[in-house]
Design brief:
- This protein is an alpha+beta fold.
- The chain has two domains: 155 residues, 3-Layer(aba) Sandwich (Creatine Amidinohydrolase, Chain A, domain 1); 272 residues, Creatine Amidinohydrolase, CATH 3.90.230.
- The protein has 13 helices and 16 strands.
- The chain has a six-stranded mixed β-sheet.
- α3 links the parallel β3 and β4.
Length: 442
Amino acid sequence: MPVDDLYQRHLDRIERDFGAALEASAQAGDPFRGLVIHAGPEFLYHRDDQPFPFRTDPHFARVLPQPGPGHLLHYCPQRGLRLFRVTPQDYWYESPARGGHPASKHLETLDFSSEEDALDALSDEVGLAFVGSDAEVADEVDAEVEPVVLMAWLDWSRGMKTDYEVHCLREAARRAAPGHAAVRDGAGAGLSERELHFEFLRATGELEVDLPYPTIIGWNEKAAVLHYQSKRSEAPRSRQSLLIDAGVSHWGYACDITRTWVQDSAPVEFVALREGVEALQRRLVDAVRPGLPYVDLHLRAHREVAELLVEVGVLRVGVDEALARGITIPFFPHGLGHHLGLQVHDVGGRQRDPGGTLLEPPEDHPHLRTTRTLDVGQVVTIEPGIYFIDLLIEELRGGKGGDAVNWTLVEELRGCGGIRIEDDVLVTPDGSEDLTRPLVPG
């Protein structure tokens, strides 16, 4: 189906979702006649005239990827959606771009030279709810900022992606694929982390500011830092492992892809662990289906991580004992994955229902971002891992795992850092579709 048609259906779905959110809020005793969604303000660094990099509010970006601050969306059931676009007449900076996206054909748009003018045009509207972070803008239109019930419905509805949104996620993965290939080739040549980062940007044609999250590219022991933010300029003296976690966005929708590649000098046990995590990740992807609680998938991942650690010889106790004592958690300390969309860690992952009731993660797994039951149209990441993290290893050595771990082998594997493999998976009526693996091989 042409993307124009996908986008029109997407807008139709958004209007239904907005209407349902307003109705739910009214039933909860907080009625509104319409919504105003703000693209977001521009913030300056302290005592400076340079702005922070701007990122559009995701509820605004769900409607269209209009760059720049100050724009407004207005929705009321009687008139539908309207864009109040701010295009300042300014010779210092370029006006926000207008072309390339089908919104120009499908969305009623009014242009204003300032945000103040756009707000004035809304002055006759009453009974509004405001979505955004700028309370001063909300005051200008006498709107209530982010009512709880209404926001819960909006967050929940973003969990089920439209065909247009899935198209954007696929396109993001397609654009990220050359970057991953370039980094893999560069790793074989022994390039530094910084050089590999530049290779990713070059191959994808992206600017750093446009990435959905900073690239994570870590040689050897740095692969154990879950959100490793540095990029060393020196080439590694020895090459045991390389982890890359990197994605790009298309029209606001992000992909999130991680690969770990083993190099020639890695111990055979680490090679076996990497192959085991790869096979485990493929089984977990295949297990995704509607009606499955994501928590069940996360707990299954921990059991199979325990099996791997026992099989390779890292653990000296059985699988059941390791799980009962919580010994897998230091080796796999994060959640299995998260919802994905306009935000890399997308909203609504811990909601039990559209009314906002939360389903907290298991007590022993507090970092699990998604506890929701899987449903058709959701897109989640599946990213099991095994790491040798200095802080957690030392805590384990001095605590509950002292007698359960082969410390000699752990010391040998610490220099490899860790393993994480991640793909983006769409829940379909019959199971799942991996959106990234066909484009970025393991």
